[in-house]
Each structure stands twice: as C-alpha cells, then as structure tokens.
Design brief:
This protein is of the alpha/beta class. Helices cover 32% and strands 23% of the residues. The chain contains 20 helices and 32 strands. Helix 2 crosses helix 3 and helix 4 crosses helix 11. Bound molecules: adenosine-5'-triphosphate and magnesium ion (MG).
C-alpha cells in the first residue's frame, strides 16, 4: 500500500544554543548517545546509579524484579518520599524558597523549605488524628493553593496514597473516583477562584459525598470565606485541626514499592482508570528527568503551569522539582485573567528561568497575538517546555521566536499518566530540535514504532509507539483492575508496553508522535494523521486551532472533516472555507483536502486542555454526541457544534 509522504517530518533541525550547551548537564549529541548506549547495555547499573539521587533509609540491593507485566524496582530499599522532598533540603538550605505562590487576585505567598516542611508535618499529624493509616487512600479535591501540595506530601509522609481529583470536576466525577479508591477521608476547600468567580468546591463535594457513605471525615481549607454547609462530626476545618497540630512528624521508612498515589486519566479515550504509582522508582525518575530535561540548577526559578490535578502537576510541580530542591512558582488562576498577559507578567515578576506549559496553551497565546508579551520582561527565561499534545510546527516556531526570542531551547516532552515521567524529549543542551517532534528517547528508555505484528516500521511510515523495557516510574497496575492493565497495555503487542499513540520515526531516528491510534485517518488507501493536517491548518494565518476527524465515505473510505477556531481579527465565511481547504491541499497534497470545514467558537477539550476528537468524530459521523462527556471542559462547545451541524443539514 502506498504510504503518504508526510511533510511535517521534513522540519529542519534547530541546534541547541551554543551558550546553553556550554553549561548544560549533557552538552552534545555524542554525550547523549554515549549515555544512551551505557543505559542500554547495562540498565540495572544505570538505574542503580540514578537511585543515588534519593535519600534511602535502607539502600536497595536489587534493582529490578520483572515478572511481566509487573515490575518491582529497588524493592528491598526503604525511604520516605516526603523526607526526600523536604527534610533533606531543610538540612541543606532551610531558607531557600520552595513554593512561590501567586493567587489569582494577585496575593502572594513565599514558602521556604522549612515552612513547607512544618506545614506538611502538621498536616501529617492531623491526618493521623482523622484516622488515616498507611495504605489508605485520601482523596484531594482542591484549588491550586499551597495546601494542595502540603496535603499530598503529608499523605506521602505517613504512607497514605492520595488521589487528587482536579478541582474543575463535577460531583459525579468526584464520587466515582472516591468510590473507586475507597477513600475514607476527603480534603477539600470551601471554594476556589477562577477568572474572578468562585468555584464552590465544598458544595460540589457535599453533593458527591451523598453517594459516598464510606467517607467519614472531610478536611476543609478556608480559601474564599464564603458560607458553606457544615456536617458536624464529619467536617473539620483545616485551620482548626492542622494549624493546632505539632510541626514535628518523624518521617517513617516505607518500602520502595509502597503505593504513592492513584491518578485517574483524563478520559479522552473512554472510562477513567485509576493509574497506580509507587514510591521509589517514580520519585527517582521524576527527579532525574527534571534535572536532565529541564537542565535544572540550584538558582533556577521553575514554573510549570499545569494544574496539580493532572500528572504533569504531580510529577513536575510537586515530586520532581521538590525532590530536586528547586524553587517552584505555583499560580492559582487562569492565563487570561485579569488580562491575556498574566503569564508574561508572572514570568517577569518572579524572573522565571524555566517555563513548562502545554501545547494547547501555546496555541492560545499565539492566537491572542504578540502585543501581550511586548510590555513584559522575559529576559530571565532560559528554557521552554511543552507537553500534552503534539505541538504544531507553527506554534513551536512562534514559541521559539516570540517567547524564547530564539535564545531558549524548547523541550517537547512526550509522556503519559501511565509512564509517570518524561520518556521522550530533547536534552536541551544536546539534542537538535525539530519543530513538532519529541525527538529521541531518554537514556534508559527503549522506544520503538511497530506494526501490530511486532515488526518495526520503516522511517516515514506510521505505526504504534511502544516501550520495550520496564522503567522505574512506570505505572504498576490499574487500581482494582489488574486484568485491564494487562490487556490494555501489555497484551496488544505481547510483551511490549502499548502507549496507544501513533507515531513515525524519521531518517534521524526522531520520533514524531502523531496523536492517538484512533486519530489516524485512511483516505483512499493513504494513512494520514490528524496532527499533520491540523498542523497545516494552524499554519494558515486565520486559523487558531484545528481538530481533524473523519467520517465514512463511499468512494474514499474516509473523508476529512475539519473543525477550527479562528485567530482574533478573522471572521468565518464561505471564501475562508475555500481558502483553508486550498491551503491544506497545497501544503500536504490534494489527498488531504478536507471534505468539510466547520468554524467554531470553541473546540471540545478535556479539562487538561486536550482536544476531544472522539466527540468530534461522533459529531461528524452521526450529527450528535452520546459518548461519555464527564471530562469535557465546557459542554456548550459541543452543543454549539451540534447545533451548527443540525442547522446546515436542514
Ligand atoms: P486518557 O488516557 O484517559 O485518554 P490522556 O491520554 O489525555 O487521557 P495523559 O496521560 O495526560 O492523559 O496524556 C498522555 C497523552 O498525551 C499521550 O499518550 C499523548 O497522546 C499525548 N502527549 C503528551 N505529551 C505529548 C507530546 N509532547 N507530543 C505528542 N503527544 C503528547
Ligand atoms: Mg492516555
């Protein structure tokens, strides 16, 4: 079968800035390759060396026990995750800022490592008073306030698992997750702020709790001061219990494989599943990758804009950076509140040097225009990162030129909730970047692009992205459903970890993640990825964001349907529709010419900002949506699209 020749793979390499490489941890492609080879030849030796990054109460004597698909890393070692994130830094530099928090209303709070340590100890003691024991699972449903990080670290300190549920989720989503995790304790707040409005978290939690009789205690942070319903005997104020508890809580040793947290995936592909991560391997690889990928140094001011409710926030706001003793900026609110320059203002104010955000955010910044950046001082930036979706080359170039002023390397980091930490990414001082590619696997990671029968696909053809060997921060199972863990991840291509993503490798061995396996479109025998067509669309001056899906077509097999939003200053029109189709045909080829283009105000996204093509596909094929929408950010976007389509068909 003739395979399509994809143009996005022809991006030219952009070398790391010389100045950056000079001081980087890994300074050249040769150094990276040597490291990679070492790890490949002796994975146990390599990872056991990295395990020295951690503080162990009992150092492990064995690296890996691998009973596929179950891995146990460093299993006879003992440690305390919160000790690694706090106590050891308090001993070294007690006054170093750990969290620089900014509220949406502009209020600021700086917590040193000592402050964070004391708050965590108080919270750990409070949780014990509420009856929390090692092995229990505490659900956390909170806004982006420092108490959220404190609560997670306090759970880790006493050996309890946490399950953080994003503060934007509805009552049914929260109760499903509390029931699945069998939580007896919930930590929440009276409310949170988003674009100046109050999000009534306690009210939502109260209604979720009606379905969760197993939850005995609810610990509530006072954030907004609004009046809330109070269930005497069940509800406890944080400021009464935690603040009155002792600031000394010895960190007990736990086994390396002690469960650390459950995190439910965002659900772009169906029913949420509770991904289970354990202690040592996860923490080590988060810490190691933070140092390698972000080239973290002592003096950096590091800001990851994700919500802690997602894995990015777990691994790269809390565990990776704090285990590394970094100074971390944490922001409570929205990027466009009160103005669309809020992020640039924060970068200027704190002199942020490492900025890690999502592909979807970069596309939004680009569509808002450059004026918002111009009045702010971004000269402190030295490295930019992106995650979450493939970043379209046009957005990458904008990020590089306008935010990074051509000075800052960009790390396009590929990973998943399931992988725990970044697996594929440039090393900023070593790997020549290509706009839109996550580039090469990190040392210790064997990534391949295969056919379903396990054969390697040749460069330039689409296949399934798999990981061949276990890695320390890998998920251990799906909580309560080990059979699904086996089936979904290890039995598709037997013995290999199946990521569910489609990808290509180019001539240089670079990996181009093209989106999910389900998002590959077959037109007249050609396999096109939604990402390639979307990238062509986003490179048109009028298009802000695009989602491409297919519907069945009698002649071609599948026909391409485009949903797109426009950049400020552009209006939807018939002419534009034609121009956009022409543009795709000229960039990629007539085979990719869309059969339909729909302009929309908003695209349906998960709450973590990913486009939900699953819903758009349903809409394009059936004209309406019946699938699970509990993780959708704004239901009105899909309703408006459905109306527009219904209207057109009349
Ligand atoms: P669900 O698994 O429930 O559908 P999700 O996959 O959106 O949810 P995450 O684990 O947060 O939840 O996202 C991981 C996915 O995000 C990857 O499998 C990949 O599709 C995409 N992704 C993440 N980073 C990148 C990147 N740098 N380039 C391309 N795709 C990326
Ligand atoms: Mg996924």
């Amino acid at each position: 079968m003739a395979e399509f020749d994809p143009h996005v793979l022809e991006e030219k390499a952009v070398l790391p800035p010389v100045e950056f490489s000079r001081h980087a941890r890994v300074r050249s492609l040769e150094e990276y390759r040597a490291l990679y080879q070492r790890a490949q030849e002796d994975p146990a030796g390599f990872w056991s060396e990295q395990a020295e990054l951690l503080h162990w109460f009992t150092p492990p004597t064995e690296v890996l026990v691998w009973n596929p698909p179950h891995a146990r890393w460093f299993h006879d070692g003992t440690l305390n995750v919160s000790y690694n994130c706090l106590d050891r830094h308090v001993q070294l530099h007690p006054k170093k800022p750990a969290l620089l928090w900014e509220a949406e209303d502009g209020k600021r709070l700086a917590l040193t490592y000592t402050d964070l340590y004391e708050k965590t100890c108080r919270c750990a003691n409070a949780l014990k008073k509420l009856g929390v024991k090692s092995g229990d699972c505490v659900t956390i449903y909170m806004p982006m306030i420092p108490e959220l990080a404190v609560a997670m670290l306090a759970c880790a300190r006493i050996g309890a698992m946490h399950s953080v549920v994003f503060g934007g989720f509805s009552a049914p989503a929260l109760s499903d997750r509390m029931l699945d995790a069998k939580s007896r304790v919930l930590i929440t707040a009276d409310g949170g702020y988003r674009r100046g409005r109050i999000i009534p978290l306690k009210e939502t939690a109260d209604s979720a709790l009606e379905k969760c009789p197993g939850v005995e205690k609810v610990l509530v942070v006072r954030r907004t001061g609004e009046k809330v319903n109070w269930n005497e005997g069940r509800d406890v104020w944080w400021h009464e219990l935690v603040d009155a508890s002792s600031s000394l809580a010895p960190a007990e040793p736990f086994p390396a494989e002690h469960p650390l947290f459950i995190l439910y995936t965002s659900g772009t592909t169906g029913k949420p599943k509770g991904v289970l991560h354990t202690s040592a391997g996860y923490l080590m690889q988060c810490m190691w990758s933070t140092r390698m990928v972000f080239d973290l140094r002592e003096e950096d001011v590091y800001w990851c804009t994700a919500d802690i409710g997602w894995v990015t926030g777990h691994s790269y706001i809390v565990y990776g950076p704090l285990a590394s003793g970094a100074t971390v900026v944490m922001y409570e609110g929205a990027p466009d509140y009160p103005g669309r320059d809020r992020f640039w203002q924060i970068i200027g104010r704190y002199k942020v040097s490492i900025f890690y955000s999502s592909a979807t955010a970069v596309r939004a910044f680009m569509s808002w225009g450059n004026a918002y950046l111009e009045k702010h001082d971004l000269s402190s930036l030295r490295l930019l990162g992106t995650v979450g979706e493939p970043i379209n080359p046009a957005a990458w170039k904008w990020y590089h030129a306008i935010v990074g002023k051509g000075r800052c390397p960009i790390v396009d980091t590929w990973w998943q909730t399931e992988t725990g930490s970044i697996l594929i990414s440039p090393l900023p001082g070593a790997t020549p970047a290509k706009a839109g590619s996550a580039t090469l696997p990190l040392p210790g990671v064997i990534a391949r692009v295969l056919r379903m029968n396990g054969e390697e696909v040749p460069p330039g053809e689409t296949g399934y992205l798999v990981i061949e060997q276990p890695w320390p921060s890998m998920m251990r199972t799906i909580y309560g459903d080990d059979e699904r863990y086996r089936r979904d991840y290890w039995n598709r291509i037997p013995g290999k970890y199946f990521t569910g993503d489609a990808a290509q490798r180019d001539q240089d061995g670079y990996i181009w993640v093209l989106g999910r396996v389900d998002d590959v479109i077959k037109v007249a025998g050609h396999r096109l990825s939604s990402m390639e067509i979307e990238s062509a669309l986003v490179s048109h001056a009028a298009v802000a964001e695009a989602a491409v899906v297919s519907r069945p077509d009698d002649i071609k097999g599948e026909a391409i349907v485009v949903f797109c939003t426009l950049r400020s200053g552009h209006e939807a029109s018939e002419e534009l529709r034609v121009l956009v189709c022409e543009h795709v045909a000229s960039v990629i080829g007539t085979i990719a010419r869309p059969a339909e283009v729909r302009f929309a105000d908003l695209l349906p996204k998960t709450r973590s900002g990913k486009i939900m093509r699953r819903l758009l596909r349903e809409l394009a094929q059936k004209g309406s949506v019946s699938g699970d929408t509990t993780t959708l950010e704004d239901f009105s976007s899909i309703e408006k699209l459905a109306q527009e389509i219904g209207h057109d068909e009349e």
